[in-house]
């Protein structure tokens, strides 16, 4: 039989081992990104950013003394895969929060599973439908398609233009932004005088653009969409020698768009997150320094131009980290509450003020800028 002293030593060893094991537990945060496939220009920089900053956070001591364990899956932009991986993250990996997906269609496909599991989701997609109406555990930290419509229409007002044509992608983002533009047009006294749609696999939009060109009422054109579609629209636009101003959404706010569209992109105006031109922002812009710091670090780490989509990932990750710090808890419910309580949180994407009524917390002043492509680069429209 063991002596009492031996039993005490054994108990101490067991307790010590348990505490040591417990101390090494990680904070499991999930990520769902479109790292490959047609939306890889979104997901690839998002994943790179998440991995880079998780490693950096851990090297600096983690969050509340624990390291973050990033568990990520690549959907290739497929909503069905997004559902499969969401279930895996929730039921097998037991994450406390999820960042992503990259696209609107994927996000909308998984929100019901998020609500059931009561694990907070920080989407990196653009559509306002993600957070309107508000869903208890669903957030986003990227400017909405509605805000993009408003930014374009404000510029049309400044230019004295009133008749706008839409040519929209048929995917989740294009569909949602089209609906938002139709909804807010009257607020800015803008008339939608043409409304064309193209499919995700369409390789030529000449027929839709010809209808717009032959419409005598059209004064400007807006293309809600992302991926290859807007680049094709832009090339066809130049081929048809359409003279009206062309606007693109924040869905193409990447140098990759300029590379693909080439010379046809000259003069195109694009709604974009501020990080794209962080070094060109006025010093009075409250999120300039955060955006500029991210831009410099991203370009050094990956030897490529900054990606606004990488900026979305940075904002999403640090919003979750800030919520954990503020609540001093790794519980999903507490993290959810912490995100909703974020006030004056300066992110790459803008100054964030969440509330029970607003699960995005951005405004057009800090969350969006209007750019024009000149000589193959961005210029800020004053």
Query: How far apart lie the N and C ends?
Result: 85 Å
The oligomeric state of the chains shown is: single chain
Looking at the structure, the CATH topology of the largest domain is Rossmann fold
Classify the beta-strand content into a percent band: 15-25%
Largest sheet, in brief, is: 7 strands, mixed
Count of domain modules: 2
Name the poorly predicted regions: 9-23
Describe the structure.
- It contains 13 helices and 14 strands.
- The chain is of the alpha/beta class and 382 residues long.
- The protein has 2 domains: 23-143 and 287-367, 3-Layer(aba) Sandwich (Rossmann fold), CATH 3.40.50.2300; 146-272, 3-Layer(aba) Sandwich (Rossmann fold).
- The chain has a 7-stranded mixed β-sheet, with helices on both faces. Strands 2-1-3-4-5 form a 5-stranded parallel β-sheet, sandwiched between helices.
- Residues 9-23 have low confidence and may be disordered.
């Amino acid at each position: 039989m063991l002596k009492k002293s031996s039993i005490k030593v054994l108990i101490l060893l067991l307790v010590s081992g348990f505490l040591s094991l417990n101390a090494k537990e990680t904070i499991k945060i999930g990520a769902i990104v479109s790292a490959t496939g047609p939306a890889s220009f979104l997901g690839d920089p998002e994943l790179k950013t998440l991995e880079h900053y998780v490693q950096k956070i851990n090297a600096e001591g983690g969050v509340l003394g624990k390291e973050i364990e990033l568990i990520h899956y690549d959907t290739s932009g497929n909503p069905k895969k997004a559902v499969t991986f969401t279930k895996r993250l929730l039921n097998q990996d037991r994450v406390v929060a999820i960042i992503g997906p990259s696209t609107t269609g994927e996000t909308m496909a998984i929100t019901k599973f998020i609500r059931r599991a009561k694990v907070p989701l920080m989407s990196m997609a653009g559509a306002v439908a993600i957070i309107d109406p508000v869903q208890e555990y669903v957030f986003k930290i990227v400017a909405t398609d509605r805000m993009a419509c408003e930014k374009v229409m404000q510029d049309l007002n400044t230019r004295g233009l009133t008749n706008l044509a839409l040519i929209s992608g048929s995917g989740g983002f294009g569909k949602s932004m089209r609906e938002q533009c139709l909804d807010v047009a009257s607020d800015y006294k803008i008339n939608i005088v043409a409304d064309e749609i193209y499919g995700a696999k369409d390789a030529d939009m000449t027929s839709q653009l010809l209808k717009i060109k032959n419409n005598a009422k059209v004064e400007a054109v807006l293309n809600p969409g992302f991926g290859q579609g807007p680049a094709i629209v832009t090339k066809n636009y130049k081929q048809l020698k359409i003279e009206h101003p062309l606007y693109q959404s924040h869905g193409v706010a990447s140098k990759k768009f300029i590379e693909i569209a080439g010379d046809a992109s000259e003069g195109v105006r694009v709604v974009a997150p501020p990080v794209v031109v962080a070094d060109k922002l006025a010093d009075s812009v409250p999120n300039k320094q955060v955006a500029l710091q991210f831009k410099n670090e991203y370009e050094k780490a990956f030897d490529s131009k900054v990606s606004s989509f990488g900026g979305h990932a940075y904002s999403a990750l640090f919003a979750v980290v800030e919520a954990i710090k503020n609540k001093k808890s790794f519980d999903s419910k507490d993290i959810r509450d912490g995100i909703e309580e974020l006030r004056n949180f300066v992110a790459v994407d803008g100054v964030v003020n969440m509330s029970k009524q607003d699960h995005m917390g951005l405004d057009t002043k800090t969350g969006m800028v209007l750019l024009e492509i000149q000589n193959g680069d961005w210029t800020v429209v004053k």
